[in-house]
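Hey team,

Sharing the cysteine-S-conjugate beta-lyase run so nobody has to redo it. Sequence (390 residues) first:
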Amino acid sequence: MHFDKITDRTNCRSLKWDAMERAFGVPANEGLPMWIADKDFEAPDFLTNAMQELVTKGNYGYFSGHEKCLEAVQWWMQTRHDWKVEQNWMFTTYGLGHGIATTLMALTDPGDGVVTFTPVYHEFENKITKAGRTNTQLPLVKDAAGLYRMDFDAYEALMTGKERLMLISTPHNPAGRVWEQAELDAMADFCQRHDLLLVADEIHHDLVFPGQKHLTTAVALPQILDRLVITTAASKTFSIAGGRTGFVIIPDDTLRARFAAYFNQFDVSANLMGSTLTQAAYSPEGAAYVDELRAYLTGNYDVFKHALDKIDGVEMMPMQSTYLAWVDFAGTGMDREAFSYHVYGKARIAATPGHTLGQGGESFLRFNLGTQRARVEEAADRLTKAFADR
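Structure output:
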């Protein structure tokens, strides 16, 4: 793959590029969009060829053969993540976000509490609120190496007794923390102690850096399969979110029946484009692509962190996976309005505001490194200059 090839995403219905000025005031003609978690790379041939076959055949009506997509999911999970998944465990949803929202509605009641470890992907809070549930935020803490850790002793005092479900990001968004076995075990103990279901968003599971190993929750925590739900999709790995296809995977028969009783009311079925793209992605060609992609994203991280570590008062958290860098501006002494002006106004970079990711994110911005190396270098140079004259 030619990841360095610059692609023009303007005026092609790319939300990341076309909505940048409206969302952040960063001019479209000179801004760098580093906000929404979508990558800028040219689509690989195996995806383009799959879509071209659809166009050539010209059938856009009712379709059959979605079981081939489910077989591809099974192959991917077994081959890439050492997880044997049965087809009847899987529900196909309109993307991972829809899967999370549906799970909240199916397995909790209005007013129930949902536990999250913050700061975390902002859509967790949005989905919880829209569902009429409440969010019990458990702040992550930084260790001596600057990595996020969980503090379950401190969390006991934050529980209200209304919590029925824990929603986690693994690997963690932002900053790409890869949770270790001991941490997952502690999480499982916490869920059992407080009688919580555990819903694991594993959408970034493919994008771990060299030397790191993502532990699929269902494999790492067999002791809580009766309370475990996994949600995932190919969208973040392969930039196919437009296919609106995700999967809710529930190994336990009883819990799966509870989910199905709600889910089946809506007669949800897969869509042709998303099914086709996912099947093409979860393939040997897709596996080779991901291996190259992981190496390239690791290089982008190295370049960006090396540059930001030299900016006085700016601290970038070490990453172990994903392409979503987490940068703290607290050391600059600036308030949120001031450091945001330096990024949006002076550097002309659109980054995700950290305060929208919950407690602990107030002094941060999240930067999407899923772009060409030249753009990462340009962003680093712009930030260096923007903060040089403060």
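The radius of gyration is 21 Å.

Ping me if you want the raw files.
A.
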